[in-house]
Structures are given as structure tokens and as C-alpha cells.
Amino acid sequence: MNVVIIGCGVVGAAIAYELSLVKGLKITVCDRQPPAQASTGAALGVLMGVISQKIKGKAWQMRQTSIQRYETLIPELEALTGRKIPFNRQGILSLGLEEENLAAWEKLVEIRHSQGWHLEIWDTVKLQNICPQVNCEKITGAVYSPQDRQLDPTALTLALVEAAQQNGVTFKFGVTVLDAQTLPPDSSPQFCNKLETTEGKIVADWFVVAAGLGSTPLTAKLNQIIDIRPVLGQALQMRVGHPLGNPDFQPAITGNDVHIVPVGAGDYWVGATVEFPSNGNEIPPNQELLESVREQAIAFCPELATATIIRTWSGLRPRPEGRPAPVIGKLPGFSNILLATGHYRNGVLLAPATAYAIREMIVFQGIGG
């Protein structure tokens, strides 16, 4: 059975690798650019699962599935490829500001405990003891999530691609989809039998659209437009030259939607802004917003004021218009086109669960149909 995946960010790569573990599938991945270029390459890789406010239904289920899968996936990929994937196992620390509701956090701690997960509420004394780099009078405490993680999204995606290649997946980069052919034209649901690309025809039994913002023009060619809009995010890498606080305890720190992520050797990623397009789809990066993110990070960890900025970058996140993110399931009107797109700010977090979901759809339907 032939499967074609369109898009090779972290989601497309995770699907390719997960499907490569299924016998009897012949998998091809196409992307118009090299892997991990778009939103994946700009992401900070902070996996907010246990510490997220999602407590039930699919939103929580997918987070839980992904967090569990990452514990086995990272060592699995490292063993297969010999690559090192930076994976911070020291948890996530969420800083509480005075206006935040302690009762809501206490409730979350209780819910997570009943679900078999661990969260801790720290008062300012404990916070000062364990993370002395956090020094801000507006902070009234923190919530520590030891089972949440942070990873390098680009390193992860490249390892997924290499491992999938070893398992026989074909990757075609620099290939653009021009058109799609469906059979028969007047039936419902329709069956897509081939794609016209800049490299010729590609025939398959299943097509998986995992192209982020590229999913909109692609689905437009099939007259079933899935409207995904860009939301810009900017971040910066700051060099302090030594670890902040305790060198042996370097969790990802988050507060007021600003992340401070240790990336080794006294460097920190700080981000990210959330910038919506004002008119059309153009979003020029707003320098002032990036500066306010930097200032917020310094307010939390004053020592960052001495840091040098090594680089700044931005990326566009794919946000579905008028519906919740992500969009996973069949493209309406088609029997063999699956969507795995529009993950907005959670592409890296939800990639493993998305890959599982797509695998189930293909394996179960493939047997029947």
C-alpha cells in the first residue's frame, strides 16, 4: 500500500517514522523545501503537557500520549541514527504572578495526581532555594512539572527523517504539488489517485496533508479549502556564558507566556511573541514585541540583563481559522486524503500523538478498504 505524506516539518516526519514501523507500507514524503524549515525550525520545543490546562477529552489525551511516547522515541531515534537530540528532562517551571489563581493550580495538581501525573506547588522560599536565578517580587510562587520536557525541534525532525530513511521511506525535497487527480469526478466521497508535482506524477492509495500553512493552497486544489492562517512568533538566543542559578538544575522556565529555555553552554532561548496579521497574510516581525519579551525574561531572571544576543529569528505558526487546532482526520469529500495540520503552537508537542492517529486511520481502513 502506497502512502504519500506532503510536508516534512516535525509532524510530517513523525508520521513518516511511525508509519515506517508498519509492515507492508511504501511511504514517500514530499516537501518543497528541506526538512524542519518552516514553523518547526523556529519552535522552542517546550512540551507543556502535564502543566497545560487541558484536563479531559482529545486535547488532554493527545498531550498525554505524546509525552509518554517521547520518553521512548528519543532514545529509540538516537540509537537508530547515532544522532544526539537535545532533550531536557529537568521539567518545566511555571512562574505564578500575584494575579494568578492559586486555587486553580491546586485543583490542577489534584486532577493530575488522579491521572497518575505529578505537579508541585512551590512557595517563594522554595523557588528562591532551588532556582535562585528567578528574582522578581511580582512572583508569588511557581508550579513545577517534573514530567514535562523540552527538546530541540530541528534535531528531532532530522533524526526522524534519518530513521525513517533507514526503514525504507523515500524523501523528495524541492518538490511542489501542482495539481491532484480524483476518480470518479462525480462520486462522493471522491478518491484521489495521483498528484501532479514538479517531479512528475505521484500515485498512492493514501495522501496525508501535513504541510502546515502549505495545506491551504493544497486543499484549494481539491476544492475543499482548509483555512489555515499564519501567526508570527519571534525568539532570541541569549548568551550569559554560564548557567543561571544551579548548574545542575536547569528546567525550562515559563511565565506570562514567555519561555526561558536553557540550551547548554550558558545559552538560553527566549520567546516567543504571538503576532497576528493586520491585513492579508503579511506579518512583518515587530521589533518592539520582541524587546518586550526580552524585558519580561529579564524581569523574571535579572541576570539575563547582562546577556549578549547571539541571534534572533521568527517563524509562522499554522492556526486553523474558525475551528480548534489541530486539524486531524479525513478531508471532507474524500475517502483517502487525511489531514494532519494546523497545530498552531503545539506541533512539536503533539507530533507523536498525531502520528499515532494517522497510523490508526490508515491501518484500520487499509485492512477494510
UniProtKB/TrEMBL annotation:
Signal peptide stretch: none
Domain FAD dependent oxidoreductase residues, every copy: 3-360
Annotated EC: 1.4.99.6
Record GO cellular component, one term: cytoplasm
Q: Which GO terms describe its molecular function?
A: oxidoreductase activity
Query: How would you classify this enzyme at the top EC level?
Result: oxidoreductase
Alphabetic keyword roster: Oxidoreductase
InterPro entries registered for this protein in UniProt: FAD-dep_OxRdtase, FAD/NAD-bd_sf
Q: What is this protein called?
A: FAD dependent oxidoreductase
Q: Which species does the entry assign this protein to? A: Nostoc punctiforme (strain ATCC 29133 / PCC 73102)
